[in-house]
């Protein structure tokens, strides 16, 4: 499918359905993520947030619908149907940076090598070039002095920032962040939040899932409330958190203990 207009969204999720056996986990999801937009998925445990991110990253195959991914650096170029079964999944994954709840850094590799590994594999960058870029990235996230350390010498928040640096080292078109703060002590959440906000300022396009409403409020351009695999409501944080239009959204938020501090 061709997307000639410069303003075409970077990501278009069109009627996506995902079933596990009899259980329909994504029930016709339509969602667009604009260039440089930060879209945050919220919803109860089991509502389908992670599964949606996994369909975009091709870790799960859709049962119906399509997902189109454009190029960040070439807005006029045709978006690619990444759900086309003939697609090279590894190549598509190389266009998408992913960070999960658990940082998944390689414990036997120093911080710098963790950051450069993907860049070297995906882009076949030489060691010297990858290290230069890796050090710049570590500088950007304020961890240059940890470049030669092993991950277990870093706090959880620092490890998660390294995982984010690793995800952006390949200069991906899209970043997927799945519950990246839920394994962190509350006092470490702020430093990860600051980094995500910085990425946003620098123009990254981000689709993320979180249970932390304060995080969603502070970083999202748009918040999407998912319930039972359907989008109930989507809008700017002020709408969703202060004046939700749907009763179901209001009920979900009122059940949460997080007071959006
Ligand atoms: N591989 C799988 N096989 C079978 N069922 C699955 C699989 N992965 C997810 N599910 C089910 O799909 C539903 C949605 O799960 P998902 O992890 O997407 O929810 P979530 O909103 O991300 O939840 P949480 O907030 O707890 O991470 C759940 O009922 C889950 O048990």
From the structure above, extract its key features.
261 residues; alpha/beta; six-stranded mixed beta sheet; four-stranded antiparallel beta sheet; 10 strands; globular; disordered N terminus; binds adenosine-5'-triphosphate; ABC-type amino acid transporter activity; cell membrane; amino-acid transport; membrane
Compact summary:
34% of the residues lie in helices and 23% in strands.
Q: Strands, helices and their partners?
A:
Layout: E1 11-20, E2 23-33, E3 38-42, H1 49-56, E4 64-69, E5 80-81, H2 89-93, E6 96-99, H3 111-122, H4 127-140, H5 156-168, E7 174-178, H6 186-201, E8 206-209, H7 213-219, E9 222-227, E10 230-235, H8 237-242, H9 247-255
Parallel strand pairs: 3-8, 3-9, 6-7, 7-8
Antiparallel strand pairs: 1-2, 1-4, 4-5, 9-10
The structure holds adenosine-5'-triphosphate (ATP).
Question: Describe it for me?
Answer:
- This protein is an alpha/beta fold and 261 residues long.
- The chain has a domain of 66 residues.
- 34% of the residues lie in helices and 23% in strands.
- It has nine helices and ten strands.
- The protein has a six-stranded mixed β-sheet with strand order 6-7-8-3-9-10, with helices on both faces.
- A hairpin with a 2-residue loop joins β9 and β10.
- It is globular, with a radius of gyration of 18 Å.
- The N terminus is likely disordered.
Number of contiguous helices? 9
| Main sheet record | 6 strands, mixed
Q: Could you give the count of β-strands? A: 10
**Low-confidence spans:** 1-5
SSE string: EEEHEEHEHHHEHEHEEHH
Helix content: 25-40%
Mean pLDDT across all amino acids: 90
The strand line-up of the biggest sheet is 6-7-8-3-9-10
What compounds are bound to the protein?
Answer: adenosine-5'-triphosphate
- Secondary-structure content class: alpha/beta
Give the overall shape, derived from the CA principal axes: globular
Straight-line distance between termini = 44 Å
**Could you tell me the strand content as a percent range?**
15-25%
- Overall radius of gyration: 18 Å
């Amino acid at each position: 499918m061709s997307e000639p207009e410069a303003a075409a969204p970077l990501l278009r999720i069109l009627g996506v359905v995902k079933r596990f056996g009899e259980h329909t986990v994504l029930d016709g999801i339509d969602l667009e993520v604009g260039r440089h937009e930060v879209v945050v998925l919220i919803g109860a445990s089991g509502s389908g947030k992670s599964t949606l991110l996994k369909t975009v990253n091709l870790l799960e195959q859709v049962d119906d619908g399509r997902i189109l991914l454009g190029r960040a650096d070439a807005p006029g170029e045709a978006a690619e149907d990444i759900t086309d079964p003939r697609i090279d999944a590894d190549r598509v994954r190389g266009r998408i940076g992913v960070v999960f709840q658990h940082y998944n850094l390689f414990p036997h590799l120093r911080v710098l090598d963790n950051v450069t590994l993907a860049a070297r594999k995906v882009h076949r960058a030489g060691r010297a070039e990858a290290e230069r870029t890796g050090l710049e990235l570590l500088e950007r996230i304020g961890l240059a002095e940890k470049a030669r350390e092993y991950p277990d010498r870093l706090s959880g928040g620092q490890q998660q920032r390294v995982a984010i640096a690793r995800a952006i080292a390949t200069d991906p078109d899209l970043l997927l962040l799945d519950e990246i703060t839920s394994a962190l002590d509350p006092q470490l959440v702020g430093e990860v939040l600051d980094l995500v906000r910085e990425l946003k300022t620098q123009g990254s396009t981000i689709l993320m899932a979180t249970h932390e409403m304060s995080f969603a409020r502070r970083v999202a351009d748009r918040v999407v409330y998912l319930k039972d695999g359907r989008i109930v409501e989507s809008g700017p944080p002020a709408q969703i958190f202060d004046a939700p239009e749907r009763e179901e959204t209001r009920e979900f938020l009122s059940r949460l203990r997080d007071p959006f501090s």
